[in-house]
Specification:
The chain is mainly beta. It has one domain. It is built from 1 helix and 6 strands; from the N terminus they run E-E-E-E-H-E-E. The strands form 2 sheets. A 4-stranded mixed sheet has the order 4-1-2-5. Strands 3-6 form a two-stranded antiparallel ribbon.
């Protein structure tokens, strides 16, 4: 399961504020056009 951000079309494996993200399986995210985030920050990690 991964956290998705609809505005950026990226997904993350770990986030600080999960309420700000969608939640779906990695395969569903990739099928829907989301991509793994290239790098993380203090709030989200790829």
């Amino acid at each position: 399961m991964v956290f998705t951000k609809s505005t950026s079309r990226l997904y993350y494996s770990k986030v600080t504020n999960p309420g700000n993200y969608g939640y779906m399986s990695q395969s569903d995210a990739e099928t829907s056009g989301y991509q793994l985030a290239p790098k993380g920050n203090e709030y989200a990690q790829p």
